[in-house]
Write a structure and sequence with these properties.
alpha/beta, 6-stranded mixed β-sheet
């Protein structure tokens, strides 16, 4: 049975992705931080890890790019999930009883507009959405609400006070599936994640983008991260889709010549809807 590492506990969105991607016949390893999750994949106690990497409202989860890179993990797949946040509390508790709401920082950010109408409610950052639902349930905390999934409300027997409180209705999070081992090449693969660094020479980034265009590669994501050892120098993480593996290989070879460093983070199946 494959061991799948997730950030969070049963009922979290990472748990949902694990079940959607791998099915029910897996063993779930729960971790409260992405660092612990990534380490478990690196040392082999988890065969695969599920990591949120970006959200359509809140943007990139930048530290996770660095974790994947620093531990030399391979991106072997991706999954997009529409995130519907529910405000929940113990049975019998209504909105007027709630003094604080605690949840993962990304969930709070995605629901920021909703809470502008309730200035008396304090927002507290926590390590996990479902974890807060479980804490409220187990400790019978009446003045605290949680933001979590419908599944979490059922598991931990909380009532949903307000449904779908995210700022934008279509709120998608992209999750990547990471492994210590690289997947064997497949004809189905049509997306890749790469990292490269460039000199400060004028037009260096434009030349890489031109290569992508010339070889019919579509840039779906670009994210810069500072290179800590060299102030004001940056690495670029990009996702690109392609129709022909030969075009991709030729483009990568040319980008290698144009860049100071180049690293393939993974080739996998594009799951963007």
């Amino acid at each position: 049975m494959r061991k799948i590492g997730i950030q969070g506990i049963k009922g979290s969105y990472h748990d949902q992705v694990a079940k959607e991607y791998f099915g029910d016949a897996v063993e779930i390893n729960e971790f409260l931080s992405f660092d612990e999750l990534a380490d478990s994949v690196f040392i082999g106690s988890s065969d695969f890890g599920i990591m949120a990497i970006e959200n359509s409202i809140a943007g990139s989860i930048i530290p996770n790019y660095a974790l994947i890179d620093n531990l030399n993990l391979n991106i072997v797949g991706e999954c997009f999930v529409n995130i519907n946040h529910q405000l929940m509390a113990l049975p019998g508790v209504d909105l007027n009883d709630i003094e604080t709401v605690s949840s993962h920082p990304m969930a709070l950010l995605q629901c920021k507009k909703f809470f502008k109408d309730f200035p008396k409610i304090s927002l507290i950052e926590a390590r996990d959405t479902a974890g807060e639902a479980k804490r409220i349930s187990e400790n019978k905390i009446k003045n605290v609400g949680a933001i979590a999934s419908v599944e979490a409300s059922k598991l931990y027997e909380l009532n949903i006070i307000h449904k779908n409180i995210q700022t934008i209705e279509k709120n998608e999070t992209r999750f990547v599936i990471v492994s210590k081992q690289r997947m064997s090449s497949s004809e189905d693969f049509d997306k890749a994640s790469i990292k490269f660094s460039l000199s400060h020479k004028t037009g260096s980034l434009a030349s890489v983008l031109t290569i992508l265009r010339d070889y019919n590669l579509n840039l779906t994501k670009i994210q810069s991260l500072p290179i800590i050892e060299f102030p004001w120098k940056y690495s670029f993480f990009i996702d690109t889709t392609f129709n022909d593996m030969n075009d991709f290989n030729n483009a990568i070879e040319l980008i290698g010549h144009k860049s100071e460093s180049l690293k393939l983070l993974g080739i996998y199946k594009n799951r963007m809807k």
